[in-house]
Structure formats: C-alpha cells, structure tokens
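help with this record:
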Amino acid sequence: MNVYGVVGWKNAGKTTLMEKLVAEISGRGLTVSTVKHAHHAFDIDHEGKDSWRHRAAGAREVLVCASQRWALMSELRGLPEPPLSELLAQLSPVDLVLVEGYKRDRHAKVEAWRAATGAPLIAREDPTVRAVASNDPVEGVALPLLPLDDAAAIADFILSDLGLR
C-alpha cells in the first residue's frame, strides 16, 4: 500500500491540506484512505447510544453498521497506542493512504509550514520530509517548495514521488 504523510506543527494547515488532497487525488480516479493521529482523547460515539453502552459495558471492539457506512471502534483499555504499521494493516487496500500526523514515523511526508506559527521546520531534522508546502519563504532547506494552497501541485508531487503518475 502506498503511504504518504502530511506533517507540521499546530495551525500549519495540515487538515485543510489533507482535505484538499483527498478531493484532488480521488477526483483523479484513485482510491484514497486517511489516517489521522490525535494527541488527545476523542470519541465518535455518544453517551447513551447502544454502541456506547456496549463499550461502557467492557466490549473491546464495537462495530456499528448502517446502510451508508460502518465503523469499528477499538478500546485500548490500558494497552499502548498501536504503531502506525498496525493501524495501516486494518485498512482495506486502496491506491493511497494519506496520513496526517505521525511525524516521527519513517514514511515519506510533505510538511505544511507557516512562518506565522513561529514553529521550526520539521524538514531541517527529518530526512523523510520530501517537500515543504508553504506560502512563505523557506530558507536553508534543499527540498522542493510547493505552494500550500495549490493542492493539485502537491498531489502531482506526491503521486510522482510514489510512481503513481
């Protein structure tokens, strides 16, 4: 499975870029899935609903299915967070998996960067960052600089880097 990441610090534009990349790449006829790393607790379930009650009762996994979608929720119940490779193995085969976050993992990445955040460039320290997507000048990095707001150009770069063009 082809995997490519979008990394960057808070407020760099990662989620907006991911959204645009999914639309751009799937619009070209490729199948795309995503993985999003969260640094905080989250819930896709609602207290009192049947599936929530199953989890609250102690179920390790709860699968909910309806005519439009299905979702599998897995409770770690004290186990460590699984590595990205384990999560990727749970996905159905697609042409490309875009990963938001997981900046310390070793897959190829594009870094979303905005000078206004004051955050340093990850690309300076991480050889897996293959390009920087920014609308600001970037000094001292010998990588392609792509316009942050040009999803088509960034998609071209990713697909070319993966040999999918």
Remarks:
- The mean pLDDT is 94.
- The radius of gyration is 18 Å.
- Residues 14-27 form the longest helix (14 residues).
